[in-house]
Amino acid sequence: MVRKKSMKAKKSEVLKTLQNLGKTIYGQLLAGEFPWVEMPSRSTRNIRYDRELRQYVLGDKRIRRVSRNIRHIRPFTQLIWLADVAHQLIEMGKTSTLRDIYYMAQAYDVDFSDQSESDDIITDLETLISYAREDFNIFPEERSAIYGDLTIEYTVPRYEGKRINLTIHPDGVMIGPALATSDFIDTSADIVLCIEKGAMFTRLIEEEAYKKFNAILIHTAGQPPRATRHLIRRLNEELNLPVYIFCDADPWGMHIAQVIISGSANAAHLKELTTPDAKWAGVWASDIIEFKLPSERLNELDLKRLKELERDPRYAEGIWQREIHVFNRIQKKAEQEAFSRYGLTKIVDDYLPKRLDEMKSY
């Protein structure tokens, strides 16, 4: 199975883009100019929901960061330093974490007040060069996992060409940089099933749900890291596997599903993190009633989040509106694990077979 664009080719593109950025800055200095860069604005006023793309995108407003402006000197310097680090990472075939970048800066006397400032400059670089941080080898800490009959081939140095099947480890395989950038070789899977909670992910492995449903299982660990969201998109696009999302029955679970489907406002500058045809397969508010699940009252934060979802255009119709109405009516929430009331195998034996069959008509 061939990827649309090899990782090596993409890294080459990113490297060239960074080099061109350096040449532009150097040219400005030679011309006697104060160096500057221009990029799309990430302000909330410039973020809109694109119904055709089915995700948030940036509008036309742009900002210029000019070293002549004393208020811009600090973020401008941080940005150019980071671009140089990204260039080095790609050339050396190395990866770095978001936390690494924060501490590396101290060695170069590049001052970040805290990691949130460092992370924000990384996002600025993404916006400036139109590539995700993962494309220039900066990743968050690993916390998601994958399990199922999928053979991958690594593309990273020292492991390039090595193949493994993702049933190799009984706890699943961590989704890190090497796995996220690997090539897909072969699979017998028919679907991808994304699971919010680690305990449920483990349960489904133990009950061999990957065999019963011919599924690749992905533990999202709550809202999935971007590398995991990109991997989900790749499984859908490159292998034509339908994606189903299984979360807790609460407003936060709904949001996790929607982030996989249509992304987030924070990543509006990126286009390869969404899986628009993925489907939210539960747990639904209506399941709390139908299955008489053990539940708790929605607290103040839950209700506030629910109101936010009501105002979000992505939840304006279909199953989303239906389930928001149910949440408002019953004022209750339930966890995935609530099905254990009926025994440890209820999910695999009853709920998921019926729900996955039902989802074919959505």
Features of the shown structure:
alpha/beta, Arc Repressor Mutant, subunit A, six-stranded mixed sheet, 44% helix
What does this structure look like?
α1 runs antiparallel to α2 (70-92), α2 (70-92) crosses α4 (115-129) and α11 runs antiparallel to α12 (318-330). 44% of the residues lie in helices and 16% in strands. The chain has helices at residues 7-30, 70-92, 98-107, 115-129, 177-180, 198-206, 209-212, 226-239, 251-262, 285-290, 300-311, 318-330, 346-359, and strands at residues 36-40, 47-50, 55-58, 62-66, 96-97, 138-139, 145-147, 150-153, 163-165, 173-174, 183-187, 191-195, 215-219, 243-246, 279-280, 296-297, 332-333. The longest helix has 24 residues, at 7-30. It folds into 2 domains: 7-139, Orthogonal Bundle (Arc Repressor Mutant, subunit A), CATH 1.10.10; 145-359, Dna Topoisomerase Vi A Subunit, Chain: A, domain 2 (3-Layer(aba) Sandwich), CATH 3.40.1360. It has 362 residues and is of the alpha/beta class.
